[in-house]
Structure formats: structure tokens, C-alpha cells
């Protein structure tokens, strides 16, 4: 068994479920987002064709990654953008720090970028004496609380209004007990305005990088990426290499899918197209691998790189809604996180593909048709084959297989099992049986169907 | 038409009445049904736990038992789906044949037999639990996520043939109950919470019975109902489709 500081998913879920009212609230809040997505999708009769188109464009990207990235780099350089290549998170962080130092800055404003969460950029910069302020409202809230985001689109979705009010009271001096969203948002707005005006360096993520033009698109609802990038002397955009799309016209497919899948909006409030630095500004793009080449080389898992980070699979996941984002102990939570994380570290993330009932809802909502639940199943096979399961589980599974593949042993075990349940239920109905903890056992019949059939039908 | 009845292991051991109802239903609609006596398990408990490589013995046993039937029918969407996707054998031709001829009970009744009448009566308020593997794996009904596809439901089509039945509409018509195989014990906290929430949806709509195409989900919800001393009971769809006054 992995003994580690972070709780595995099941243990973290036990903690999360100690407050059932909060679980209900979390579940209903995210289910509401799922129903908004359903209503938005219902407005688009060609939704399934759009998904198929997006899936095929992304498949094309995965098969032509090298050429598209080179094309993107050439065009971006021609536009006056500086391109940096990072093999992993450490290289990415070092590149960003170097750019900040070159600019003579000690402070940076950052809009939402799950990649920088994946690379743990904030901690690295702070350790190197750079102050980082996240400008996305949700990210700002979790940053104040010294927490990671619990959701890739809604970073503070694990917090109630009251909890945000407390955090703001502590960090921004708002009135104690205040929960009015307008009041709290205004306080954050004033605080962030000062940040925007005084930072020389701004970092944004990238939603889509267009090979044909060398430009990129950043989608936000708050305009914070634009505010940061337009006011700063230096704009750094960080992207995983899978963000590439071949042509600008493909945005017509992806921008229609992204916000509808994410929050049920027709489109994000801001879909900002960046092509070149404005006069006097520097623009950098850091293109990051960090395990993506390895994932691209896994036939069963490569198409997880089609992901456009809409989080529809999180919102629909009945497990995520009831275990919370932190239970996934990974930058990207939920079903998509559970098929991405084992690629980064199999040992540390061996629990995640098992944090699912394989219900399949994730694959159905995915706007780029990633076969998420099939990949969860396949990761289970890889992880157990490579020995990342507890030894006791392997022993139990081997014993189970021995019994179930032998008709004679199976019938004997069935008879004994039913007998034990009928005549000595205490051996099963006790605190050591996780089924019995909150559920009654099925009532064992005297006779199996097999025996009934032999007695009634063979005569 | 020779139909091989595949009864999943936990139904055989714990819910023989479901198997008996399935057998009677198939015979009632005119099938010649045989239950191969040496059958055990489809292998899914190992496979879903990441040990598909240990299911070879179950696979060979399954092929030995079911290779000679025109159709293989089972009162379980989940086990049917597992066989459909993962049955392989040293006799791969036989395995391929089985994969293409295995049906979950309700889809067999609606799609192969085109059943349009049943002499059954069940005068109760019933909630249908759309088990995920039947729903999203075998496409037994239109899936809530695929908003723009036309509505249909094979289990509802059959339940609507039953006299006196009143089917209720759930708030979340195809959310998972949280059984999930070994998930029900390895992730007990989430599993139970999911089950409680599913059960609550049915209770809110005043059901007398919860039904479905998979006994595993029903067993999980039954355990939760019983722990809460609820009067609501679970019944597999085969039991309702064969019910008489």
C-alpha cells in the first residue's frame, strides 16, 4: 500500500463526506452547471456533428504534432513573438523566471492557467523572490487561502459564499460576516485593479494556438487575461503543446463547444486573439511537454491529449461531485485528471483510475469525444500489471479468479457463503465489512438458481 | 431458436427469483431456453479491478458453456456488456460469435423478439433505475448527456406493456447509483452517498418499487433502503414483466 503524505482518493473522500450537507451543496451546485450545459446543447441541433468535427481535428493534430508545432513556431516568430520550448515543468518554471528577471521585475500578475498549476509555478516563483498574484477571481480566492484550485474551470467551487466572505475579511478587510456576492466581488475588483496597474509582467494560459497564423486565443469570463496582458510590458503565454490547432477556421468549431460544455454559456465573455506584441511590448510563448510526448506515444491513452479543459466531465461525474476536487491530489481533478495523472506519476496516482464507477457519463459529455471511461478501465489494467496495486489485492484477485473459473469451486463457495450469511451473519455483518457499514447485506436464499433449475427443470 | 440463459454469479447465489422470472419470461414469449449448468461468472469483478489478465479461466469456461446457442440472454446489462467487450478465448472464433450473439434481456425482447404484448399486472408506482452499463454501454435508452438524440427507452417500452403500472419521472433520470463493482467497498463513502441520493430521488416521487435491468445496482440500493427501514422494495424488471395479481 502506498504510504504517502497525501491521502488517496478513497480516504480523502471519506473526509469530504463527513459534512453531508456540504456534499449535497457541492453536488447540486455542479449538477446545476451540468443542466445548464444540457440546455445550451439543446439549442444546437448539430451538436453531435460539432463534437465529431472537433474530435477529428484533434486526432489530426495528434498525428501531425511535430509539423504543426514547427509551423506555429515559424509563424509566431515572424509575428515578433519569442518562442521557448520546455521539456518539463522545471524547465518551464526556469524560463518564466528568466523572462521576469530580464524584465527587471519582481512581481507578476497571472490569469488562469492549469499548466502553471501542473508545473507548480507559483511556489517556484515565490521561492525565487517573485510575488505572483492570480487575477482570476476564483483563483485569487484559493490563492489567498493557500489552496490549489479544486476544479479546472471553477477553481473555488468547493467554497460557499460564507467561506469566501471569511477569506476576504481576513485578506482584503471586508466586513466580517459579509456574504453579498456584489460587495465581495467589488472588493476583489479594487484589489486586483491595483495589481493590474502596477505589474510589468503578465502571464496567461493559452486555449488554442493556431499553427496557420502563429497567434493564440485565450478564453475568460472576467477579462482578467486581457487586463493583465494589455497593461504589462511583457506578456508570457504558457501552453501545453497539445493546445495547437491547424487553422483559424477551426476556432469556429472549438469556441462553440468550449463554453457550452463548460458552463452552458454560448461563448466565453472574452475570446481574445493575440497575434503579435503591441509596439514596445514583449511577447513570449512557452511551449511545454512535461510528459505529453510520453502520453502521445501510448496508443491507448494518446487521445486524452485532445482535451480542451472544459471540465464538463468533472461537472457530470457523480464521484467528483461527491468527493471534491482535492480528493484527486492532482492539478487536474475529475475523470480527465484521472487519465492524465498516471502518465505523470503512476505510483502517486495509481488510485485515481479506480475513483470511478465506469458509468460513462464523462465520455458522453466530452466535446472532443475522449473515451474517458474506457481509458480509466485501461489504466487500471496497466497499473495492476505493473505492480502499483497493493499486494493483498493481487492475492485476493487471484483467489477470486481460481474460484470463479471452476464451476465446482464456485458452487461450493456459493453454498458456504450463503450458509455463513444465513446461520452466522455476524461473521459478515460487522464493522470490518465496508458493505455492511451503511448498507444491509442481501438476504441469502436457501437454494441457488442452479440448484433450483436442477431440481425443477431436469426432472 | 435456442436461447442460452446466462445468469450472473451473484444473481445465481443471492437472487434466484430474478433468474426464475427471466427463464419464465423467455419461455412465455416462445423461446426454447436452456441453462448451461457449468456456468460461473463473466470475469468482470477481476477485470474492472485491473486484473483482466486473470480472467482467462472464466472466459474459457464461458465459451465452453455458451458457444452452441443461437442467442445468449442475460438479466444484467453490466455482465452482458463485459462479455460483449472483453470475451476472448483460445477458440477466438467461438468467442467472437458469442460477443455478437449476447443480449441483455430487455434489448432481446424489444429488438430480437419485437415483443408488443405481455400478460402482466403490477399495480404500483415504480421508478426505473437506468443502470449505467446497460444505458451508456448497451444504449438501452436515450442518454441524458446526448441531448439532441431522439428519446427512446427499451425498458420503459416493456414496462408500459404492464397493466396497472405507474412509472414515475426521476429528477436525474440516468445518474449512477454508485455500486460500481469493487468500487462499492473500496470507495465506500462515495458509493453509499451516491446510492442514498439515487434512492432519495425515487422516494421523493413516492415509489413503491425501484426496478432496473441490473440486480447489482438494485442490491446496493436495497441495502440502503433496508438500513433506513424503508417500505420501498426493489424488483428486477423480469419480475415485474412476469407479475400477476
UniProtKB/TrEMBL annotation, chain A:
Residues 297-319 form the 4Fe-4S ferredoxin-type domain. It comes from the Bacteria. GO terms for biological process: lactate metabolic process. One of its GO terms (molecular function) is metal ion binding. Keywords: 4Fe-4S, Electron transport, Iron, Iron-sulfur, Metal-binding, Repeat, Transport. PROSITE patterns: 4FE4S_FER_1, 4FE4S_FER_2. The keyword Membrane does not apply. InterPro entries: 4Fe4S_Fe-S-bd (IPR017896), 4Fe4S_Fe_S_CS (IPR017900), FTHF_cligase-like_sf (IPR024185), Helical_ferredxn (IPR009051), LUD_dom (IPR003741), LutB/LldF (IPR004452), LutB_C (IPR024569), NagB/RpiA_transferase-like (IPR037171). This is L-lactate dehydrogenase complex protein LldF.
UniProtKB/TrEMBL annotation, chain B:
One of its GO terms (molecular function) is oxidoreductase activity. One of its GO terms (cellular component) is cytosol. InterPro entries: Cys_rich_dom. Residues 3-84, 126-221 form the Cysteine-rich domain. This is L-lactate dehydrogenase complex protein LldE. It comes from the Bacteria. Pfam families: CCG (PF02754).
Amino acid at each position: 500500500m502506498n504510504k504517502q503524505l497525501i491521502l488517496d482518493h478513497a480516504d480523502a473522500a471519506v473526509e469530504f463526506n463527513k459534512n453531508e450537507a456540504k456534499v449535497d451543496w457541492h453536488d447540486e451546485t455542479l449538477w446545476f452547471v451540468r443542466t445548464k450545459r444540457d440546455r445550451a446543447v439543446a439549442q444546437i441541433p448539430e451538436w453531435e456533428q460539432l463534437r465529431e468535427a472537433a474530435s477529428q481535428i484533434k486526432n489530426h493534430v495528434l498525428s501531425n504534432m511535430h509539423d504543426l508545432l514547427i509551423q506555429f513556431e515559424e509563424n509566431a516568430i515572424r509575428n515578433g513573438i519569442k518562442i521557448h520550448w520546455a521539456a518539463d515543468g522545471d524547465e518551464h518554471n526556469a524560463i518564466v523566471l528568466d523572462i521576469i528577471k530580464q524584465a527587471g521585475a519582481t512581481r507578476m500578475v497571472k490569469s488562469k492557467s492549469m499548466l502553471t498549476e501542473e508545473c507548480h509555478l507559483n511556489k517556484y516563483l515565490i521561492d525565487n523572490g517573485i510575488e505572483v498574484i492570480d487575477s482570476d477571481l476564483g483563483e485569487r480566492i484559493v490563492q489567498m487561502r493557500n489552496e490549489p484550485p479544486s476544479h479546472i474551470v471553477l477553481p473555488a467551487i468547493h467554497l460557499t459564499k460564507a467561506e469566501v466572505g471569511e477569506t476576504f475579511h481576513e485578506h482584503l478587510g471586508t466586513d466580517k460576516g459579509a456574504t453579498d456576492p456584489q460587495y465581495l466581488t467589488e472588493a476583489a475588483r479594487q484589489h486586483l485593479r491595483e495589481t493590474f496597474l502596477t505589474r510589468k509582467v503578465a502571464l496567461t494560459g493559452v486555449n488554442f494556438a493556431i499553427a496557420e497564423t502563429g497567434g493564440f486565443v485565450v478564453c475568460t469570463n472576467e477579462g482578467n487575461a486581457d487586463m493583465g496582458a494589455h497593461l504589462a510590458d511583457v506578456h508570457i503565454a504558457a501552453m501545453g503543446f497539445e493546445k495547437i490547432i491547424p487553422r483559424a477556421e477551426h476556432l469556429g468549431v472549438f469556441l462553440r463547444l468550449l463554453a457550452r460544455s463548460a458552463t452552458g454559456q454560448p461563448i466565453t465573455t472574452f475570446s481574445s486573439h493575440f497575434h503579435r506584441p503591441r509596439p514596445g511590448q514583449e511577447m513570449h510563448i512557452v511551449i511545454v511537454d512535461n510528459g505529453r510526448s510520453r502520453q502521445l506515444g501510448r496508443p491507448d491513452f494518446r487521445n486524452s491529449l485532445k482535451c480542451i479543459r472544459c471540465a464538463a466531465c468533472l461537472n457530470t461525474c457523480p464521484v467528483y461531485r461527491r468527493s471534491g476536487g482535492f480528493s484527486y491530489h492532482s492539478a487536474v481533478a475529475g475523470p480527465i485528471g484521472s487519465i492524465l495523472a498516471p502518465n505523470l506519476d503512476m505510483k502517486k496516482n495509481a488510485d485515481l483510475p479506480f475513483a470511478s464507477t465506469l458509468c460513462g457519463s464523462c465520455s458522453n459529455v466530452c466535446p472532443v469525444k475522449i473515451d474517458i471511461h474506457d481509458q480509466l478501465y485501461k489504466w487500471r489494467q496497466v497499473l495492476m500489471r505493473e505492480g502499483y496495486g497493493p499486494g493483498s489485492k493481487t492475492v485476493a484477485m487471484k483467489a477470486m479468479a481460481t474460484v470463479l473459473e471452476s464451476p465446482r469451486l464456485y458452487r461450493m463457495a456459493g453454498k458456504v457463503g450463503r450458509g455463513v450469511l444465513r446461520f452466522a451473519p455476524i461473521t459478515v455483518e460487522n464493522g470490518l465489512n465496508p458493505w455492511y457499514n451503511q448498507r444491509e447485506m442481501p438476504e441469502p436464499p436457501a437454494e441457488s438458481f442452479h440448484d433450483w433449475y436442477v431440481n425443477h427443470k431436469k426432472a | 431458436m435456442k436461447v442460452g440463459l446466462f445468469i450472473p454469479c451473484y444473481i445465481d447465489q443471492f437472487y434466484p427469483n430474478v433468474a426464475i422470472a427471466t427463464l419464465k419470461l423467455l419461455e412465455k414469449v416462445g423461446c426454447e431456453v436452456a441453462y448451461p449448468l457449468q456456468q460461473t461468472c463473466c470475469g468482470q469483478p477481476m477485470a474492472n479491478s485491473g486484473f483482466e489478465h486473470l480472467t482467462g479461466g472464466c472466459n474459457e469456461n464461458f465459451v465452453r458453456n455458451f458457444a452452441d446457442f443461437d442467442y445468449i440472454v442475460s438479466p444484467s446489462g453490466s455482465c452482458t456488456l463485459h462479455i460483449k467487450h472483453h470475451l476472448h478465448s483460445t477458440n477466438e472464433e467461438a468467442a467472437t460469435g458469442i460477443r455478437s450473439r449476447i443480449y441483455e434481456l430487455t434489448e432481446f425482447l424489444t429488438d430480437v423478439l419485437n415483443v408488443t404484448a405481455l400478460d402482466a399486472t403490477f399495480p404500483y408506482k415504480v421508478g426505473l433505475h437506468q443502470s449505467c452499463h446497460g444505458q451508456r454501454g448497451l444504449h438501452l435508452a436515450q442518454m441524458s448527456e446526448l441531448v439532441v438524440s431522439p428519446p427512446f427507452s427499451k425498458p420503459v417500452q416493456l414496462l408500459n406493456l404492464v397493466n396497472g403500472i405507474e412509472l414515475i419521472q426521476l429528477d436525474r433520470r440516468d445518474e449512477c447509483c454508485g455500486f460500481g463493482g469493487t468500487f462499492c467497498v473500496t470507495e465506500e463513502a462515495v458509493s453509499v452517498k451516491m446510492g442514498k441520493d439515487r434512492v432519495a430521488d425515487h422516494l421523493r416521487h413516492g415509489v413503491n418499487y425501484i426496478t432496473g435491468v441490473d440486480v447489482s445496482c438494485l442490491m446496493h440500493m436495497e441495502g440502503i433502503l433496508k438500513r433506513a427501514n424503508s417500505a420501498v422494495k426493489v424488483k428486477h424488471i423480469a419480475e415485474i414483466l412476469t407479475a400477476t395479481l
